[in-house]
Amino acid sequence: MNTMMEKRSIQTNVKPARLGFLGVGWIGRNRMAAILRSNSAVAVAIADPSEERAHEALSLAPDAKIVADLDALLAHDLDGVVIATPSALHAEQSIRALQSSVAVFCQKPLGRSAAEAAAVVAAARSAGRLLGVDLSYRYTEGMQCIRNLIKHGELGKVFAADLVFHNAYGPDKSWFYDKSLSGGGCVIDLGIHLIDMALWCLDFPQVAETTSTLMKAGELIDKLEDVEDFAVATLTLANGAVIRLTCSWRLHAGSDAVISADFFGTAGGASFKNVNGSFYDFAAQRLRGTASESLVQPPDDWGGRAAVDWAARLAGGQTYDPACERLVDLAEVIEGIYGSVKFSP
Ligand SMILES: NC(=O)c1ccc[n+]([C@@H]2O[C@H](COP(=O)([O-])OP(=O)(O)OC[C@H]3O[C@@H](n4cnc5c(N)ncnc54)[C@H](O)[C@@H]3O)[C@@H](O)[C@H]2O)c1
Fold it and tell me: Is the domain of 158 the same as that of 293?
């Protein structure tokens, strides 16, 4: 996959896309650096209410201008905007950019609800502009390999998947713990990647039934506004296959992180796991009975690939891509997980 990305970014007769960067906290700067390194785009302007962060971002692109806000960014004849602001702002900012005929690459989640995600997709469709979301784990070599195995029928019928994401720390910014700003807790923050990995590998099957248990500090959550720090969910697909998800913040996990996606089929299995508790290093294996075969080992510099892919496609002239409609399916599954919790009266 590296080679494919590199080829895309060095099609040198393609003019780099003119981008604005909205929100340049840690992930915003990380993705900005990856896009600029790929030479598929140039940074025209940067907006962040934190002067310190805007200046840190400027050190990545000294020719860019620091501007006040999204309106000021959009005044700069841009091809696209890269949005990495707190989650509550994603949908509204994406829609405003798209309505100005500017393509969008947004951090996950695209919206706090399925309705918000659907409104952004509708704006992209009516503007005819490219919309991407940073579902970055799809771009790991391990998950690319596993998806290919499944797609080519190598695992037979996949009837079960187990996916786990425990982050032993949890977010350090206060807005993550306010549901009106974040949309939820570990499910919308970490579980979103697990759900996306499962649905994407299985080609977005229909989910027939969802059950979930959400907890906060070791107790079942009992108020709608509670932000969960531990979640277990089971998605039963229309074809009878079952996806089990577990995710958490600040778990006594025994390492920084426990991240895995295991798929089991009638003809074999495949497993994607982080190595030594790392957030960044992953290995993938193919499983047959009691035997396993290594598919991928670290290192794999995957973090910025979704952003680079979007920027390269934009520079190459790609307009609206209907694949973004799957983002609404993803948001609906998340809403189903939150919606299946029963609160005591
Ligand atoms: N794809 C991934 O794997 C991944 C990883 C980490 C974070 N994220 C997502 O990225 C988003 C940002 O997370 P973060 O950890 O970088 O948060 P952060 O708080 O460090 O960064 C957010 C930035 O947005 C700025 N900001 C706030 N309001 C703004 C506005 N109106 N206009 C412009 N900028 C504004 C803040 O000053 C800050 O610099 C979150 O939605 C999070 O879910 C995604």
Answer: yes
pLDDT in tens, 129-175: 999 999 999 999 999 999 999 999 999 999 999 999 999 999 999 99
Q: Are both 121 and 162 inside the same structural domain?
A: no
Beta pairing class for 257-265 and 230-237: unpaired
In this prediction, residue 344 has a pLDDT band, given cuts at 50, 70 and 90, of low
Q: Rounded to an integer, what distance in angstroms lies between the CA atom of residue 34 and that of residue 41?
A: 10
Does residue 12 register a pLDDT over 90? no
What spatial distance separates the first Cα and last Cα of the chain, rounded to whole Å?
A: 51
How far does residue 106's CA lie from ligand 1's centre (Å)?
A: 10
Mean per-residue pLDDT, 245-264: 98
Ligand 1 nearest atom to the CA of residue 85, by list position: 24
Give the number of C-alpha atoms closer than 13 A to the C-alpha of residue 168, restricted to the C-beta side: 10
Residue 288, pLDDT above cutoff 80: yes
pLDDT band for position 341 (50/70/90)? confident
Examine the domain organization and report whether 279 and 308 are in the same domain. no
Residue 16 and residue 97 in one domain: yes
The total domain count for the chain is: 2
Same domain, 176 and 229: yes
Is 333 within the bounds of a domain? Answer: no
Residue 205 near ligand 1, beta carbon < 6 Å: no
Ligand 1 mean position to 277 CA, how many Å? 24
Half-sphere exposure for 45 (CA within 13 Å, toward CB): 19
Between the CA of 26 and the centroid of ligand 1 the distance, in Å, is 7
Contact assessment for residue 120 and residue 94, using Cβ atoms and an 8 Å cutoff = yes
